[in-house]
Amino acid sequence: MSSREPRVAVVHDWLTGMRGGEYVLEAILDLYPQAEIFTLVCDPERISGKIGRHKIHTSSLQKIPGATTRYRHFLPLMPRAIEAFDLSGYDLVLSSSHCVAKGIRKPQSAVHVSYVHSPMRYIWDRFEDYFGSGRASIPVRVAANVLRGKLQKWDRRTSTKANLDLILANSKFISDRILEFWGRESRVVHPFVDLTRFAGPRSPGDFYLVFGAFAPYKRVDLAIEAFRRLHLPLIVAGGGQDADRIRDLVKGTKIELLPNPTNQEVEKLYSQCRALVFPGIEDFGITPLEAMAAGAPVITIDAGGARETVTKETGVFFGEQTVESLTGAVLALERGDVKITESACRRRAADFTKTRFQREFLAAVGSVYGPR
Hints:
By secondary structure, this protein is α/β, with parallel strands linked by helices.
């Protein structure tokens, strides 16, 4: 056997900002410092230095003017763009995928391990959230319905054992969806939270917090309507594709909108909020862990990845994505029906460390690929 260092390719859908998936990517790159990155598009100004130190290969989509901000518009082109990468000579392929990254063509002699944040939401169970009535123009909805079947077929074809030697899911919730949509078993390796970032003292105030990317399935609208009826203070912090809609929803209310907060602002919000409100059904959901790491309780829908992080000692669950169900959970906390301590929240978050993630990730890769 050759004694040379294995060549490692790390594939990520796109690099246009630093969110949960990009911090997972950083943790993977820590384990493979010589790895090269393959991604559809990259905005070097919006990625961390840790990612930027690696050699980054981009697809043909990078040449399209505005691609780094309007990349979602090119969804029909993404499968062909990701398959066009030539990974000849690479021994180990590691993809970090929530869209098409896992569909990259692996060399015949290579091993491909894919860490899946989610099967493509846009074409599977969240299709109506993105392309339903009122969510997209009629021409876009017609085109999406025409393309949906083709994209699903491609998604299943590129998820077979011939292309993916091992699938890692970021939650049991996602593992179940992988089995449903792709017919593949997967191994769960939960992501992590940066405990040191949220270790500051807690000084809770009277406001509640919604924080994260403004995407349709996040159901920020549900929280806005609930707190409008409750007349309780709410701060909605974040940004994303639904930003204009969220801005319209808070008009005329006493709800405060904080667009694109800095890391320092986010840390302060977690330390001072009464609780984090988490109304969306998430694949995993890093914000509940961040809130708990800061000692804050979580009010969450009893579904999705939150079931695997939030407990009855650290949060309040509500059963349905309705205003009435959410307001009931908020009132339970307001009345003191539920007692949640800062120490319980911090202890629970401490179960999800980067060290634990990296150890489990390495063990999983090692189960199908020998040298490192």
